[in-house]
Write a structure and sequence with these properties.
It is globular, with a radius of gyration of 21 Å. By secondary structure, it is α+β, with helices and mostly antiparallel strands. It has three domains: about 180 residues, Uridine Diphospho-n-acetylenolpyruvylglucosamine Reductase, domain 3 (2-Layer Sandwich); about 80 residues, Alpha-Beta Plaits (2-Layer Sandwich); about 90 residues. The protein has 15 helices and 17 strands.
Length: about 400
């Protein structure tokens, strides 16, 4: 007899908690998702007895533009949240990949972020509260709607980046940022990696406070019509503070660099670099390496294909058209002591690839936390890079 999967789409947090409790009480395995936009991310989506999607939880619970806070349900599309805030010139500057398809809960569960993490941080810096549903059918409130209220916020932080392996995110509360008065971007070409990194170091040590500073290697630069090392700088603030970038960057990188025309869609293209690459390469894989700024040169130099770095925070992404090539690169990276994962890979390869070769000492703590929330291992089994 064919295995029947029960598919559920709860419409309230209480229904979500009930669905989890019912499945767990019967010992049924559970696949939890939002809009499934990141199926190729992290570990495999194992077959499960019950599939629960949070995509019907789409309400804005509370929005106080003057307090710079908003509370929304986890299934609200990220693009819709962005539009709602833009109407009041406000933002949550996470710039996640797949932002056009992802839900709020999916962005949180995968701890997705983008170029502006340099200035604004990651989800853990922008979330002030959360409500999540446990396998016992409880709705747990963690943190609140006040920016300085940290009571219980660590529980919410456990959910961020857990890929739905602990509980189901139902509601997320964010602190908001006002949109900058004016913005300007620069795309500075360099002949060498050393030259690009020297300029980057100078910018980071200067009075400038860019919102983002990303570095693309020549293979990635071809997507922007150039075959040079490209330093992309995003500035925001008052007109006077943004004008200062012209002067400072001309001093750092030369007048020609500042006069280089910057595509209007630059940051959209940078944010969507991963989704576009994966759409073109069915067997493609993306690795993520977290390193010190000192190690940035070695990590970037090791990629033969396209590579992109958050050059101010030491996070690098390498792109491989064949997943086996990513695995080969990863084994070399582990030998050099770099912290790496295969962040995206084809579903059918996830069981054979070593996705997270060196999880470090935190893994044992993560396993204990998993055991507290889900002792029978029912929820999103193996989704956390096949380790949990």
């Amino acid at each position: 007899m064919e295995h029947m999967v029960k598919a559920l789409a709860p419409t309230t947090p209480a229904e979500l908690a009930e669905a989890l409790r019912d499945a767990a009480a019967r010992g049924r395995t559970i696949a939890l998702a939002g809009n499934s936009s990141k199926r190729r991310m992290a570990g495999p989506i194992e077959p499960a007895d019950t599939a629960i999607a949070t995509s019907a939880l789409r309400r804005v619970i509370e929005y106080e533009p003057r307090d710079l806070t908003i509370s929304v349900e986890a299934g609200l599309p990220w693009s819709e949240l962005t539009r709602i805030l833009a109407a009041n010139r406000q933002m949550i500057p996470l710039d996640p990949p797949f932002g056009d398809r992802a839900t709020v809960g999916g962005v949180m569960a995968s701890n997705s972020s983008g170029p502006r993490r340099l200035l604004y941080g990651t989800a853990r810096d922008l979330v002030i509260g959360m409500r999540f549903a446990t396998l016992e059918g409880k709705l747990v409130q963690s943190g609140g709607m006040v920016v300085k209220n940290v009571a219980g916020l660590d529980m919410a932080k456990l959910m961020i980046g857990s890929f739905g392996t602990l509980a189901a995110i139902a509601v997320v509360n964010f602190k908001l940022q006002p949109a900058p008065e004016t913005e300007r971007s620069f795309l500075l070409p360099f002949d060498s990696l050393a030259g690009a990194l020297a300029a980057c170091k100078q910018i980071l040590a200067s009075v400038l406070q860019p919102a983002a500073i990303d570095l693309l290697n020549p293979a990635a630069g071809t997507a922007f019509g150039q075959s040079a090392w490209l330093l992309a700088v995003r500035a925001g603030g008052s007109p006077a503070s943004v004008d200062r970038y012209d002067y400072e960057l001309a001093h750092t990188a030369g007048r020609l660099a500042v006069e280089n025309p910057c595509p209007e869609t630059l940051w959209q293209d940078v944010e969507s670099f991963t989704p576009r690459f994966l759409d073109r390469h069915a067997d493609g894989a993306v690795v993520r390496a977290s390193c010190t700024l000192k190690d940035l040169e070695g990590v970037l130099a090791s990629f033969e294909g396209p590579a992109l770095a958050r050059a101010g925070s030491g996070v690098c992404y390498g792109y491989f058209e064949q997943s086996e090539a990513a695995a080969s690169w990863l084994s070399g990276a582990v030998g050099r002591g770099w912290k790496t994962v295969i962040e995206f890979s084809p579903e059918e390869r996830k069981h054979t690839l070593e996705l997270w070769p060196s999880p470090g000492g935190d893994l044992e703590i993560m396993r204990r936390v998993k055991n507290l929330f889900d002792p029978a291992n029912l929820l999103n089994r193996g989704r956390l890079y096949r380790r949990i």
